[in-house]
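User: Second chain of the day. Same drill as before.
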Amino acid sequence: MTHQPTRRSMMALFGFMLFVAGAAQAEAPPARLANVTILATGGTIAGTGATSTTTVGYTAATVGVQALIKAVPELAKVAHVSGEQVFQIASENMDNEHWLTLAKRVNVLLAQSNVDGIVITHGTDTLEETAYFLDLVVKSRKPVVLVGAMRPSTALSADGPINLYNAVLLAASQEAVGKGVLVAMNDQIQAARDITKTNTSTLDAFRTPELGMLGYIQGSRPFFYRQSTRKHTIDTEFDVSALTALPQVDIVYGYANVGPVALDAFVAAGAKGIIHAGVGDGSLADKVLPALKAARAKGVLIVRASRVGQGILARNGEAKDDELDFVVADTLNAQKARILLMLALTRTGSSKEIQRMFYTY
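Assistant: Same format as last time:
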């Protein structure tokens, strides 16, 4: 005779299953928190203003890294955080020596088994340049995330604390591994190669106008929707471990009635490379072209970029690049083209090889 389970026996069985599941969950070890090191360099995120409504005219780089960490106690929920004060400067003062020091420190830390990711606090004025430099020279798949703020720490609705929280969350995540150097600003994830500052003061200043951001940070989770196809970090040919200086590369800006004075001065001052940020598709004015030719004849590498800030620079479009032995910047803006050219010149003086690099990185 078959016995059907009673309601009481079914309830007892269900309660036992819940007890077993709860016990198993209680015994499961908590997920390991990642170890994230914050390298502080100064900037607005570490700035202070005279009043809570001071959002311009403040003093950058006054708050130390430990104070930044203490101001966001929620960091302890997403990572084991430690901090180092590498520099304490406004980012307009960032230079090649700072970059080399920072890159070497990043590589040393990432080589350690007890460091899972790095966050770099940085002023916004040159954040995109530092990010791209590191994207080319960091030798690890571990996450490196740059973060800044558009308002000082003392301002009403200061964006620094949430940006820092998001940056640490991102650097601690498995989703960010192998994605290259990233920027976390305004709840968005951006690629170092493509991001640029597009506004002087608003919170949404950092954008990738045409190619688009990589994803969002929402609900304490990173969401990636795309990634850069250009080579970065461990897949690049650049090594700064033994470098103590970078070649001098300067930027010449194109505009109506431009002459060769600035270009000639840079060459006379020892420039090894010139980025020409031309109008439109990198057009070269008649007054400047002879000086560019003369500079190239002296061995100075010439890269044609555009002041427009978007679009591909067409090789042999507005200039006979093959005949002139010039390089084109692809989609890089002038300030990022300068970074790639500096690193390229540490490897080769061949314009053909350098053009390959501009199409690779």
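Residues 10-21, 23-28 have pLDDT under 50 and may be disordered.

User: Great, on to the next one.
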